[in-house]
Amino acid sequence: MFKVLVLQRLFGLSDEATEFQILDRFSFLRFLGLLSGDAEIC
Fold it and tell me: What value does the CA radius of gyration of the chain take, rounded to a whole number of Å?
């Protein structure tokens, strides 16, 4: 959860925009330590 807050702060994203970017950007998934298939569970 802390890493998600870091991404929100760095990129100035809302909760909804953060969720979209996590599902859309491989770099966000990698930063969060998730696999591309893990994001589908969110």
Answer: 9
Q: Chain centroid to CA 12: how far?
A: 13
Q: How many CA atoms lie within 13 A of 20 on its CB side?
A: 6
Q: Is 12 helix (H, G, I), strand (E, B) or coil?
A: coil
| pLDDT tens, residue order, the chain (42 aa) | 899 999 999 999 999 999 999 889 999 998 998 876 655 555
Supply 34's token pair.
């998730």
What is the Cα–Cα distance from 39 to 36, expressed in whole angstroms? 6
Which three-class secondary structure string do you get for the chain? CHHHHHHHHHHCCCHHHHHHHHHHCHHHHHHHCCCCCHHHHC
